[in-house]
TrEMBL record, chain A:
Gene3D superfamilies: CBS-domain, P-loop containing nucleotide triphosphate hydrolases. This is Quaternary amine transport ATP-binding protein. It holds the Pfam family CBS. It comes from Limosilactobacillus secaliphilus. Its main location: membrane.
Automatic annotation (TrEMBL), chain B:
PANTHER family: CHOLINE TRANSPORT SYSTEM PERMEASE PROTEIN OPUBB, GLYCINE BETAINE/L-PROLINE TRANSPORT SYSTEM PERMEASE PROTEIN PROW. Belongs to the binding-protein-dependent transport system permease family. The keyword Heme does not apply. It comes from Limosilactobacillus secaliphilus. It is a multi-pass membrane protein. It is found in: Cell membrane; Membrane. This is Binding--dependent transport system inner membrane component family protein.
Length: 389, 214
């Protein structure tokens, strides 16, 4: 995190088109290396305009755009563009060039030697899981999804660190789109590319972005992480853009552990006997107990299996309990808790405060109730009525 | 028929060659001028419009009149005929070059530019190959016209198959008229066919239909 410098920076940028249209007004934004920034907002909001200023496909009418600390206005646009990947919705593969020639377009412009270019093409086509002999095919000989995959790898063939994408997956079917989202996520998350992407798809933005920039009428309405935007939409416009379904889901997924936990979980201290613990389990119809110390701090767990294994009901719990189960803090979000419980097949997780004192419990079945309520809550009542018949 | 060939055979070959020669020189000049002009005009759409209307106007001057106009300027013979035919060849080639360049998918050009190709690289490596079939169609059309019109060049002393036809008309010898006309048609058809093949070859892979050419 130390001394990170923005890779792309908008400094009070304005753009007024010759016809008088103010497409961007006092636009400020810093994009850090490795960020995945999604531009989203109303049509005509200025997203494309802003993006095209980064590689000087457009020049601002006021303010400065900086790339890697340098004002782009001082850079040669041709040279600049060769160092920034560019992907558009219509793919833009050159139809009379083979995939290999398309992929190697920028490396060739940069005068890479032939062997290096060929090696790069093979490496990249492997990255998108296409056979090497596709390299000699022409764009019209492969599917739209495959074409856009080539479009994406073409944009990083010369090892561009920053990639600009203008609604790159807008024209693709949902399944293909998801695959390509995985690809660009990999590029950013694992290869460290900085990606700036215009999209109309809020799910796509929420899924991929580290930062979402919401545009309306040439201005930034909100610029924040997906969680932050879901939790605190800046205004009604943003809320509307997110949509009631996602807001609803967000309310559930962004709920804290303390707001959804069951209070007063059944617990025991370590000093009681296995017999006493067994009675307690029986009374509460449960098969395990949280073990706490005198100050109610989580120290372990006693499972019915332990009791059965030892049979000697006079033994002390503290000597035969299991290690502390995985716990969550009271301010952890359901979105992460949910993943853990589901993926690790946990029956429950104790909720603790930051001193590790047990304050509640989230069980697998309480999770089910919660999700069920959520689904019920958003479902159309008439649908329910139909199902009832 | 045989007697016609016996009498005029060698003359016929010579005149056919003259006809071809005049038209092809005029056509080559037309290509050399109109294609680069059309490509350049692609950047200046307004000038392009003006240029196209000028050459359309030239096109409407009756061919005989244009040929006659050449006499006071260039005298008579092959040279003025070539100049006149060259002027005629300009419009179809220029117009098709402009249309072809204009018709290239703008997003293709945008992405090529966005990747850092210079204007010339975009023009020569992206737009021109895509526009080539349309340009070729213009050249083909021009070629067929020129071969037909070159007949009139005989009128200003340029030779060619027109000599046969005009002689036939003057002397009222139908076999001379027919003997001149048939080679003109054959020449035009052959040129059309050959240029058609070339056009197919030059059509970029994505625009070919069927495509079992190679
Ligand atoms: N070349 C241009 N000349 C004049 N006005 C333009 C030009 N390009 C864009 N605009 C206008 O500027 C505004 C912003 O356009 P821009 O393309 O940046 O919007 P956008 O957010 O990308 O929209 P969309 O989501 O529809 O792609 C729009 O009102 C548009 O009509
Ligand atoms: Mg746009």
């Amino acid at each position: 995190m130390a001394q990170a410098k923005p890779i792309v920076e908008f400094d009070h940028v304005g753009k007024t088109y010759p016809n008088g249209k103010q497409a961007l007004v006092d636009f400020n934004l810093k994009v850090m290396p490795g960020d995945f920034v999604c531009f989203i907002g109303t049509s005509g909001g200025g997203k494309t305009t802003a993006m095209r200023m980064i590689n000087r496909m457009l020049d601002p009418t006021s303010g400065e755009v900086k790339f890697d600390g340098k004002k782009v206005a001082d850079l040669d646009p041709i040279e600049l563009r060769r160092h920034i990947g560019y992907v558009i919705q219509n793919i833009g593969l050159i139809p009379h060039m083979t995939l290999e020639d398309n992929i190697c377009l920028v490396p060739k412009l940069l005068k890479w030697p032939k062997e290096k270019r060929e090696a790069r093409a093979r490496e990249l086509i492997k990255l998108v899981e296409m056979p090497e002999d596709f390299l000699s095919r022409y764009p019209h000989e492969i599917s739209g999804g495959q074409q856009q995959r080539i479009g994406v790898i073409r944009a990083l063939a010369a090892d561009q660190k920053v990639m600009l994408m203008d609604e790159p997956f807008g024209a693709l079917d949902p399944l293909t789109r998801e695959k390509l989202q995985d690809l660009v996520h990999y590029l950013q998350h694992d290869l460290g590319k900085t990606i700036i992407m215009v999209t109309h798809d809020m799910d796509e933005a929420l899924r991929l972005a580290t930062r979402i920039v919401i545009f309306d009428d040439g201005r930034i309405i909100q610029s924040a992480s997906p969680a932050e935007i879901l939790k605190h939409p800046a205004n009604d416009f943003v809320e509307e853009l997110i949509g009631p379904d996602r807001m609803n889901e967000a309310k559930v997924m962004l709920a804290t552990a303390s707001s959804i936990m069951l209070n007063n979980p059944v617990s025991t201290t370590g000093d009681v006997t296995l017999g006493e613990a067994l009675v307690k389990m029986n009374n509460h119809h449960i098969d395990s107990l949280i073990v706490v110390d005198d100050e109610h701090r989580l120290i372990g767990e006693l499972d019915i299996g332990q009791v059965m294994a030892h049979r000697n009901l006079k033994l002390k719990v503290k000597n035969y309990m299991l290690a502390s189960p995985r716990s969550v803090f009271e301010d952890d979000l359901l979105s992460s808790i949910y993943q853990t419980i589901i993926n690790r097949h946990l029956k429950y997780m104790p909720v603790v405060d930051h001193d590790h004192r047990v304050v509640g419990i989230i069980t697998r079945s309480s999770l089910a109730t919660l999700l069920c309520e959520h689904v019920w809550g958003k479902a159309d009542p008439e649908d329910n009525a139909d199902e009832g018949k | 028929m045989m007697s016609f060939l016996n009498e005029y055979g060698s003359d016929l070959l010579l005149k056919t060659w003259e006809q071809l020669y005049i038209s092809l020189i005029a056509l080559s000049l037309g290509i050399i001028v109109a294609v680069p002009l059309g490509i350049t005009l692609n950047r200046f759409p307004r000038t392009a419009k003006v240029m196209i209307s000028i050459s359309s106007m030239l096109q409407t001057v009756p061919s005989l009149a244009l040929l006659a106009l050449m006499i006071p300027i260039f005298g008579i013979g092959k040279f003025p005929a070539i100049v006149a035919l060259f002027i005629y060849s300009l419009l179809p080639i220029l117009r098709n070059t402009c249309i072809g360049m204009e018709g290239v998918d703008p997003s293709l050009i945008d992405s090529a530019k966005g990747m850092g190709m210079t204007r010339w690289q975009v023009m020569l490596q992206v737009s021109l190959p895509q526009a080539l079939p349309v340009i070729m169609a213009g050249i083909r059309l021009s070629a067929v016209y020129l071969i037909a019109w070159a007949t009139l060049a005989s009128y200003i002393g340029a030779g060619g198959l027109g000599d046969f036809i005009f002689n036939g008309l003057n002397l009222y010898q139908p076999e001379l008229i027919i003997g001149g006309t048939i080679p003109v048609s054959l020449l035009a058809l052959l040129t059309d066919f050959l240029l058609g093949r070339l056009e197919q070859k030059l059509t970029p892979v994505n625009l070919r239909d069927g495509g079992e050419d190679e």
